[in-house]
Amino acid sequence: MIRLGERLKSKRAELGLSIEDASDATKIRPEYLRAIEAGNYGALPSRTYAQGFVSNYISYLGLPRRDTMAVFRREFDEKEFNGVLPSRFVERKSMIPGFRIGPVGIFVIFAIVAIVSFFLFQYRDALFDPSLSVSSPVDGAVVHTGVITVVGKASPGALVSIDGDAALTDKNGAFSKETGLFTGEQTIVVMAKNSYGRTTTLFRRVKVD
């Protein structure tokens, strides 16, 4: 069975386009396009970016999005982890009949709750993904220009990138950055990353007439 990268490379050659031509049009770095054509998805920044880059490249080359993306998903084998509490953490009834908590016990419980709350607040970035919202463009937007401004807000202090390029944020986490578009449908990838490496990603599909 022909691999996705081979199909993309063949279609690019059929259109008489070089890697540099495709890079200029899609705003995807040449080394990333070469990695995609070689099936070396590990060379891309992440699964999120790989999905966005491949989707944009498929649209640029004029290949059927749904079928071709299905091939990509089959090829891209990345394990994902779900955070599930172990069964031993499930609350159980006391094993000591008639056990009661006195005033000292209540004080200890409150102290423990206060300490845990403090550490949760201090290290919340290590436990939770950063917040991220994109107010513009809306998903499915149709535009008539080759440049669009992506506007949104992330957790203060989080690093924001748009299609792999860094976006400046203010002290409240607000950002606004222009990004180039090519004719046809494409996916804009917006990612927020906190200091502990936790990420949140949003996609905005746009179409340029």
Give an overview in words:
By secondary structure, the protein is an alpha+beta fold. It folds into two domains: 4-75, 434 Repressor (Amino-terminal Domain), CATH 1.10.260.40; 132-208, Immunoglobulins (Immunoglobulin-like), CATH 2.60.40.10. It is built from seven helices and eight strands. The protein has helices spanning 4-14, 19-26, 30-38, 47-61, 65-75, 103-122, 124-127, and strands at residues 132-136, 141-143, 147-154, 159-162, 165-167, 174-180, 184-193, 199-208. Helix 1 packs across helix 3 and helix 4 (47-61) runs antiparallel to helix 5. The model is unreliable at 79-95 (pLDDT under 50).
Question: Notable features of this structure?
Answer:
alpha+beta, 434 Repressor (Amino-terminal Domain), 7 helices, elongated
Describe this structure in a few short sentences:
This protein folds into 2 domains: 72 residues, lambda repressor-like DNA-binding domains (434 Repressor (Amino-terminal Domain)), CATH 1.10.260; 77 residues, Immunoglobulin-like (Sandwich), CATH 2.60.40.10. It has 209 residues and is an alpha+beta fold.
